[in-house]
């Protein structure tokens, strides 16, 4: 399989280059500007690659998602998956609070611990300064 792939892949790439050159050079110039001809030539070359090697797209998409989530993780950003990456393209504004963390937009109390009440119950206020401070 490796021997066949070592011949097949370069042949497909060469065929794509030949397709690009033929479309770019021999396409009738009355069909549009030079930029339009190059776009048509590029689309034709990409079509040759996709038709010859459809597995390339099947491998490229998960690889791109994996690389994107990996780079995000290295930079401290946890990404849930490919759908989140796709929808992140449309984000125009990111709001952060004063600590720099991304918030949900509503105040939420995660947990409540009353150290003063616990200290008074346990008799930890030996000097009475805490009772004076509270009253």
Describe this structure in words.
The chain has 135 residues and is mostly helical. The longest helix is centred in the first third of the chain and has 25 residues, at 2-26. The chain starts with a helix and ends with a helix. It has 6 helices and no strands. It is 62% helix and 0% strand.
Task: Write a compact overview of the structure shown.
The protein is mainly alpha-helical.
Secondary-structure topology with pairs:
Blueprint: H1 2-26, H2 34-52, H3 55-74, H4 82-88, H5 115-121, H6 129-134
Helix pairs in contact: 1-2
Number of strands: 0
Low-confidence stretches: none
Secondary structure tally, helices: 6
What best-fitting shape do the alpha-carbon axes yield? elongated
Rounded radius of gyration (Å)? 31 Å
The amount of beta strand, in percent, is: under 5%
The SSE order reads: HHHHHH
Structural class, please? mainly alpha
Instruction: Profile the largest sheet.
Output: none
Helix percent band = 55-70%
| Termini Cα gap | 84 Å
Overall pLDDT score: 76
